[in-house]
Design a protein that fits this description.
The complex is a heterodimer of chains A (241) and B (478). Chain A has 241 residues and is of the alpha/beta class. Chain A has 8 helices and 10 strands. In chain A, strand 6, helix 4 and strand 7 form a beta-alpha-beta unit. In chain B, helix 7 packs antiparallel against helix 8.
Chain lengths: 241, 478
């Protein structure tokens, strides 16, 4: 009994007081600053996932591996800014000179601002996004404080949060789960794999047809997405203040 | 051979009969397969290991497309022979159960065509779970055949995570596949990436110098994931304090990785030729202080948990894996060590000549043994990290230039990941391009342990049995 109290006392208070304003370690590779002088095609040759286009860096494809930054620190620098989520695929492309991410449009006219239930489907990824999504509910990040719950049954869910690039073998189960969620329902894509197929995009073992039929309302980049990015994105989506 | 990683140029291509005889002799001498697979070039390879010594054998495919299964001699071939049949249609006659592993069997059209083993007895009922599970976890299907609450049989159906990793390794420049290697199993990003880096260095004929930093990365991953498992096990027996404390301690450990390389999973830390991020003196000081604090707290929390009678009543005697089964199935990692098997790649196939490593083991083979072993290993790994921080100048040089992979070379690397023994193998052709790349995650074999221990166990104990092994779906499905 006393051991238990001792362990609990030493544990102290672990929650991040405000995950929306906390500053993260400077080593964290978040929102990149892309210089006007950057040679995008040269950067694209370097990138293991061809995440650069002629318009800039596509955070939906970026693995945040840092290869470009280590080679050309004068062209690209990743800031420790975890607020990466956006509400449309287009907005994930960071143009040269862009210094902030666009605002996220809230859903449901405030209906969800205090309560939002999500059902996760893991479909062909590497389990890192799943662990980070799980971590966003732990004592440190504690997304539950905003009324967000990750539920077991799709019947109880407002949204489906997808992780993984959608392997062929998960395509059917993903559709079934989506069908089981009552309307109105929302789709959230978490991590580079869910958004673009990520490192597996060119695999012949994927079936991303589901995303041709359904539009996501939130895109959370990362490989994996950081829990703070997840907490921030969902909090904004709910329209919570 | 005793070196790890090692490479061979143009090994003898044996006739199948001779291959089979030599393999049988090795099995009789106590060797167990680390890998056994076919290649698109029509060749079979087997790498056999016995505490410290390794043998690579190569053969052409057997004529007639079938042969007497090696699984009849030693069950450790079971999964490899299932994969061989699934991929090339070569039939191991007498194999106990030729069920598909990742895709589907020859003659079937797709993964979902599979018919589960069923029972017509009115005394039995079936319970199906997955592929979508109740929590935030990877997909897989579990089909239980139960008599009342007691599980008579558990069938595990995987392959849902199959995304073609081994094929993707062959697309483009093999020396630029770190991100892919880290995504074989994201929770073992360091373990798999280290195996990949060692393999590439061996193919290119260089030896990287950053062994200290790499060791630190590998052991920190082990500490973090063992803590994650202790947290999950505590959660499953409703010991909420353990759940929260261990999860918070894991956060501290993985945030320390982030402070060095930018990723909580140690992604982007290692690269072929060395490391991308070395540990500065100032970082080493912070890391030492943090980990010393973590050590004290792990002891506090674990001693309280393992003295709690409600925890013990669930852990003790639940999900027992026998020593003989662990040995004959060729299981590795915590799964095997908790059943008394003295096997650990850090001891058997050390990466560095000077290191002497003795693993901990437990004998009971139950959930308690696996949980307690994770606790002991976490402390042991913390000590390894701390001694590594003490003994070396960690300011590593920039990664070495790789050059081109050598032609006609087969290379193999073995790493003890936190789940067990990871094996990567690849072969280059005459111009140094990679012909095939094969990966073994310890989960591939270890899933069989879960099916085995559930027999005769109450179905409500499935979650803690499952967590006590904590196996990877994506690592097994590739």
């Amino acid at each position: 009994m006393f051991d238990l109290i001792k362990a609990r006392a030493r544990h102290g208070y672990q929650a991040i007081p405000d995950p929306l304003t906390v500053s993260i370690h400077e080593k964290f590779p978040g929102r990149p600053d892309l210089s006007d002088k950057a040679d995008l095609s040269e950067l694209n040759n370097l990138c293991p996932n061809s995440a650069f286009t002629d318009r800039g860096l596509d955070l939906g494809k970026c693995l945040f591996c840092g290869l470009c930054e280590r080679k050309h620190p004068d062209w690209i620098q990743f800031n420790p800014d975890f607020k990466l989520a956006v509400d449309s695929r287009e907005k994930l492309i960071i143009a040269p000179g862009q210094t902030r991410m666009p605002e996220i449009a809230a859903i449901g006219n405030g209906v969800f601002k205090r309560s939002f239930a999500m059902r996760n489907v893991s479909a062909g990824g590497c389990n890192a996004c799943e662990l980070e999504l799980g971590a966003s509910t732990n004592v440190n990040f504690d997304i539950l404080r905003y009324g967000v719950e990750i539920v077991a049954s799709p019947r109880h869910a407002d949204a489906l949060i997808l992780t993984g690039p959608i392997s062929k073998h998960m395509a059917e189960a993903l559709c079934d789960t989506w069908q089981a969620i009552p309307k109105p329902k929302f789709l959230i894509l978490c991590g580079a794999c869910a958004i673009s197929g990520g490192i597996f995009a060119v695999s012949s073992e994927l079936d991303r047809g589901f995303l041709k039929h359904w539009q996501a309302c939130l895109y959370i980049p990362g490989c994996p997405a950081h829990p703070l990015s997840i907490v921030h994105g969902i909090h904004q989506l709910m329209g919570a203040k | 051979m005793t070196r790890n990683p090692f490479s061979v140029q143009n090994p003898d291509q044996l006739e199948f009969l001779e291959f089979s005889e030599r393999l049988s002799r090795l099995i009789a001498a106590g060797y167990s397969p680390l890998h056994y697979f076919g290649t698109p070039q029509g060749l079979l390879y087997s790498i056999m290991g016995k505490s410290g010594s390794l043998e690579l054998l190569c053969s052409v495919f057997p004529t007639g497309g079938s042969y007497p299964a090696f699984s009849q001699k030693i069950l450790a071939f079971t999964m490899f022979e299932r994969l061989l049949y699934e991929e090339y249609g070569i039939k191991p006659e007498g194999h106990p159960w030729l069920k598909a592993v990742r895709k589907h069997l020859p003659g079937q059209d797709q993964h979902s065509d599979y018919e589960f083993l069923a029972s017509e007895s009115p005394a039995l009922h079936e319970v199906g779970v997955g592929p979508v599970h109740a929590g935030v976890i990877e997909p897989g299907h579990f089909r239980f055949i139960c008599k009342g609450e007691i599980v008579e049989h558990l069938e595990i159906q995987l392959g849902y995570q199959h995304r073609g990793v081994e094929e993707l390794m062959l697309k483009g420049d093999i020396t630029r596949k770190c991100s892919l290697a880290e995504s074989i199993a994201g929770d073992t990003a360091i373990g798999h990436n280290l195996a990949y880096c060692l393999l590439i260095e061996e193919l290119c004929g260089i030896k990287a110098s950053a062994t200290g930093t790499r060791n630190i990365a590998l052991e920190m991953e082990r500490v973090a994931m063992h803590l994650a498992d202790l947290s999950a096990l505590a959660a499953d027996v409703a010991y909420i304090m353990g759940q929260n404390l261990f999860a918070a301690l894991r956060t501290t450990v993985i945030n320390s990785s982030l402070a060095i390389c930018g990723s909580r999973f140690g992604k982007r830390w290692l690269c072929p030729g060395g490391v991308n991020y070395s540990i500065s003196t100032a970082q080493a000081e912070v890391l030492r202080k943090t980990l010393q604090g973590v050590e004290t707290q792990i002891i506090d929390c674990a001693e309280a948990m393992f003295a709690n009678s409600s925890v013990l009543s669930r852990f003790d005697d639940t999900g027992k894996l026998k020593f003989e089964d662990a040995v004959s199935l060729g299981l590795t990692g915590i799964t095997a060590k908790a059943s008394g098997v003295m096997a650990d790649a850090r001891m058997d196939y050390p990466l560095d000549d000077e290191s002497i490593f003795i693993p901990f083991t437990e004998n009971a083979g139950d959930v308690y043994a696996r949980a307690h072993l994770r606790y002991k290993e976490a402390l042991q790994s913390l000590k390894l990290v701390l001694s590594e921080l003490d003994k070396r100048d960690l300011d590593d040089p920039l990664p070495q230039e790789l050059g081109k992979p050598r032609p006609d070379t087969i290379a193999c690397s073995i790493v003890e990941g936190w789940r067990g023994c990871i094996v990567h193998m690849a072969k280059t052709d005459a111009i140094g391009k990679v012909e095939w790349y094969k990966i073994v995650d310890p989960s591939l074999m270890n899933w069989q342990a879960l099916a085995l221990v559930m027999r005769g166990t109450g179905i409500s104990d499935f979650p803690i049995c499952n967590k006590s092994f904590d196996l990877s779906y994506c690592g097994s499905d590739l």
